């Protein structure tokens, strides 16, 4: 099995170097010593939701932050996660990105684990601690979606989680100031793995609608 993985890595690196790299050589050369991305993309670590693939992005276009369930620590609640916070700070303050996207997705294991609680997280102490901030939200979804199917409940959790993280973003003064000045936009998305489509949260309709 390990041998299979090793040769897959070898094959992938080779295909990249003679294929995609060669094709995008000029872009790589242009960005060899600097980056100037317009978008900070905060997504889930899930192996099926690669932002560069979904957005067909070139090197240098996206500053990417991925963690389980696309979380942003709440400053108000003193949630400390320097890994995530430093990436956001760097993207906004130094790289001066114009848009921040929080992208959730269908069938999110992190959201499902937060929903099922102890049943899933009993043997995963680090994950349990990490997902603790989603407890309140998962209880709310469980309460409000008591008559819904599991799929509907999962979707609600995934969407509500994206909205919660958008609220957290605004707790950072260096983000909020730029939003107020009209210099920065934040968007909430949900990627559907089954269809390949992306929906964006629309404040006016209070719902997620297809971008295309
Ligand atoms: Zn996920």
From TrEMBL:
<dbReference type="GO" id="GO:0004089">
    <property type="term" value="F:carbonate dehydratase activity"/>
</dbReference>
<dbReference type="InterPro" id="IPR015892">
    <property type="entry name" value="Carbonic_anhydrase_CS"/>
</dbReference>
<dbReference type="GO" id="GO:0015976">
    <property type="term" value="P:carbon utilization"/>
</dbReference>
<protein>
    <recommendedName>
        <fullName>Carbonic anhydrase</fullName>
        <ecNumber>4.2.1.1</ecNumber>
    </recommendedName>
</protein>
<dbReference type="InterPro" id="IPR036874">
    <property type="entry name" value="Carbonic_anhydrase_sf"/>
</dbReference>
<comment type="function">
    <text>Reversible hydration of carbon dioxide.</text>
</comment>
<dbReference type="InterPro" id="IPR001765">
    <property type="entry name" value="Carbonic_anhydrase"/>
</dbReference>
<feature type="binding site">
    <location>
        <position position="108"/>
    </location>
    <ligand>
        <name>Zn(2+)</name>
    </ligand>
</feature>
<feature type="binding site">
    <location>
        <position position="46"/>
    </location>
    <ligand>
        <name>Zn(2+)</name>
    </ligand>
</feature>
<keyword id="KW-0456">Lyase</keyword>
<dbReference type="GO" id="GO:0008270">
    <property type="term" value="F:zinc ion binding"/>
</dbReference>
<keyword id="KW-0862">Zinc</keyword>
<dbReference type="Pfam" id="PF00484">
    <property type="entry name" value="Pro_CA"/>
</dbReference>
<feature type="binding site">
    <location>
        <position position="44"/>
    </location>
    <ligand>
        <name>Zn(2+)</name>
    </ligand>
</feature>
<comment type="similarity">
    <text>Belongs to the beta-class carbonic anhydrase family.</text>
</comment>
<feature type="binding site">
    <location>
        <position position="105"/>
    </location>
    <ligand>
        <name>Zn(2+)</name>
    </ligand>
</feature>
<keyword id="KW-0479">Metal-binding</keyword>
